[in-house]
Amino acid sequence: MKVYTKTGDKGTTALLGGVRVPKDHIRINAYGTVDELNSGIGLIRCYNNIGDDSNQMLISIQTMLFYLGSELATPKEKMILANGKPRLPKVIQEKDIKQIEKWIDEMEEGLPPLRHFILPGGNYGSSHAHMCRCICRRAERICVSLSEVEEIREEPVKYLNRLSDFFFVLARKISNDAGHQEIQWLPDYE
User: Fold this and answer.
1) 90: closest CA among 25, 172, 136, 155?
2) In the prediction, which pLDDT does 154 show?
3) What is the pTM of this model?
């Protein structure tokens, strides 16, 4: 199978189910941003100081993001095949959101209490986790915009919301594990 198909040369692409839309369609923007997030997670995983537990969590999240991207690439009316079976092998469920919450709680146990906003940084792994947090928030905003014009389930938005919190805590954990002190943002009111 060739990577290039030439079917998108005129600025359109196919959603799952065959519907063609412009490449700047909000649905393409949504799953494209989820794909960008998935690639960003790959960068975090390149750092040796993230630990095996964090690496396994990130691999699990990357897998879930492929399912999420598939769901976002499928219009609601195409989610069920003609034979009544679901088109997708899996969709984000409440248990997946709960798993992210569990991981956040576990990571927070070893961190100092958060009393102020902090400046992103620390080291490369931590900084990339902060970048993933920002990309995740953008994906969430695009999904909210998509939900205003097309029907999507609420679980994808909830998952992305929780996932951005996960990346914030992961950034703190990576930085803390490496012995970096967080720099607090303390506003200077004049």
Assistant:
1) 155
2) 96
3) 0.92
